[in-house]
Records
---
Amino acid sequence: MSTEELKLNIEKALEEIRPFLQSDGGDISLLSIEDDKLVKVQLQGACVGCSVNQMTLKSGVEMTIKKYAPQIEQVINIEA
């Protein structure tokens, strides 16, 4: 999978999970993909101060991204 295909697949994954985040007043944006293994995202809105945002990141966002891009090893949130 090329770097461009990887980015497109990650964007598709984020589009899949975005409505769930938005329904709770949050959102997410892709910041970068490093070494085709690490994805950096930024949780936004209500997700920023949410007490379960790490669970959302791991069990929701990371799982969905890995479904579209299995080579991704980790997804981390970069706080604003």
---
Amino acid sequence: MEIEKCTTLEDAREKIDAVDEEIVKLIAKRNEYIKQIAHFKTSVEEVKAEDRISDVISRAREQAISLGLSPNLVNDLFVRMIDAMVESEIAEFNNAKSF
């Protein structure tokens, strides 16, 4: 991971804003894949995929640790993101099955 050295507060804030923008884009990209996945599943229980969720969160926690980041922070972010995306996937699943 390459981090540029900032020379001013404004420079650091600009870099943070750029990272935040990329984070939001990546979350949106992830959500689009989640919607696609809904079309491969056959039940709402399959959509919920508790084992998969555990694996995703576990990998995220391990990556956080390897990057010197709080695994609890990453865990909390992923739990919230996944909960919202499961809701989105269920809606997509239900819409796909109604046609």
